[in-house]
Design a protein that fits this description.
Helices cover 36% and strands 25% of the residues. The protein has nine helices and 13 strands. Strands 3-2-1-4-8 form a five-stranded mixed beta sheet, sandwiched between helices. The protein has a five-stranded mixed beta sheet with strand order 11-10-9-12-13, with helices on both faces. The protein has a three-stranded antiparallel beta sheet with strand order 5-6-7.
Length: 309
Amino acid sequence: MASEARSRHLGLDLGATNVKWAILEHAGADWSVLERGQFPTSASDGADAVIERMADQADRARDAWPDLSTIGIGVPGLFNATQGTVTFVPNLPRDWERRPMAAPMHARIGLPVRLINDARAFGLAELHVGAGRGCDTMIGLALGTGVGGVVVVGGEVQFGHDGTGGELGHQTLLPDGPPCTCGNHGCLEVFAKADAVAAACGTLTAEEAVAAAHAGDRAAVAGIAEIGRWLGIGIANLIVILTPDRVVIGGGVSGAGALLIEPIRAEVRRRVHVTDLDAVEIVTAALGTWAGAIGAGMHGAATPAEVAA
């Protein structure tokens, strides 16, 4: 029997601090990562300079892998999928808003380019090669500067009519609560983003909070548990709507492991009484910080490619 055709794809994950990239190989239903790396975003140089550096990386990737066929880019915010234009990225300078991204990359490299929200990219990667593998229905939450989300139904990531489906961090938990960067008040993101984690744990950063909690610092352990409680409330809402097979928690704060997951589970058990929770797994993600680049590459490989005219 002839071997299955193989194709290669580049995924780029645009972050506020670094741009991560991954070269993927696709054969049938199988995906593998051939190479990966990162470089500083240096967002203060301006959007045009960052896009140029991303194009430089794409050039290097094609030099190393001449049969590279598509490019996918994970965006930390909202975008117009049809036009390939970034519309809102809260953690990058304002010159990213309404910025064409797919078209200049396509013009420079000559390959099809697709954009995807970075949290949806995280979910796509975890679904196919990570902690969500084998799931029919999955919820994913990516904890970082904000709280990203993804919904999988029927084994497919749900994007909604405009690509914004899955913004789980912007569900309202507390009416008239603290303001969120999205314009709402009392979103889950307000209570579980990195700044909130640091504040709850009495540390300067979320990374320090996780380290302190692992070291047994009581304030940090209590702070992580409080974050888990808020996440548990949000996840409970999602479980009663979707009854997923699995909930996958990723991002830096997920490094707290059981110190975060157990409070989440306890809050879910406290609030969900309409389905069998023994059939709903709540787990940490498997792919670490590379999920966004891997998922972006997977999305770029899909057809039809969406490239701005």
